[in-house]
Design a protein that fits this description.
Elements: H1 15-41, H2 51-59, H3 63-68, H4 72-86, H5 89-102, H6 107-125, H7 127-132, H8 141-150
């Protein structure tokens, strides 16, 4: 049996050629679909998806430009302090917990933010009412902020 090396007389090709043809068809389709999904997932609106950070953007004209140059934990702290004044410490603590759950990189700043909220709550509501909002967000940092501000 004589094998032909002429590509015109050879039909179907070997397994490597079939795999190559399959990859040549499938790979671009996979790349286009994954790229489309990645682009569709990006928040192109420029507004943050977290309601806590949106409160900081809405608090003052041009705040979003200043926020871009500041650390995320500072933006979050400021937004929560505004929320504490407009709503109550319970709402601010809930949003702090949500922000830490959504962005685990904020966890290392959680205690200091909660202490700041505790101190602000004492100034806004007095020590007794501020303590009534205490809950185990970031351990007991809110409560320690209340105690520190009350001394």
């Amino acid at each position: 049996m004589k094998h032909s090396t002429n590509p015109q007389t050879r039909r179907g090709g070997g397994p490597a050629l079939r795999i190559g043809r399959t990859l040549a068809f499938v790979l671009p389709v996979v790349l286009v679909l994954s790229g489309t999904l990645a682009v569709a997932r990006v928040n192109w609106s420029g507004s943050p998806s977290s309601p806590v950070l949106t409160a900081a953007d809405a608090s003052a004209p041009g705040a979003s430009l200043r926020a871009a140059a500041r650390a995320p934990q500072d933006v979050l702290r400021d937004a929560l302090l505004v929320e504490l004044q407009e709503e109550d410490p319970g709402v601010a603590l809930t949003h702090l917990q949500q922000a830490v759950d959504e962005r685990p990189s904020l966890a290392k700043h959680c205690a200091s933010i909660a202490r700041s909220l505790g101190k602000a709550a004492v100034r806004a509501y007095g020590p007794t009412k501020a303590q009534s909002y205490a809950r185990p967000v970031c351990d007991t940092s809110f409560a320690s902020g209340v105690v520190t501000a009350h001394r």
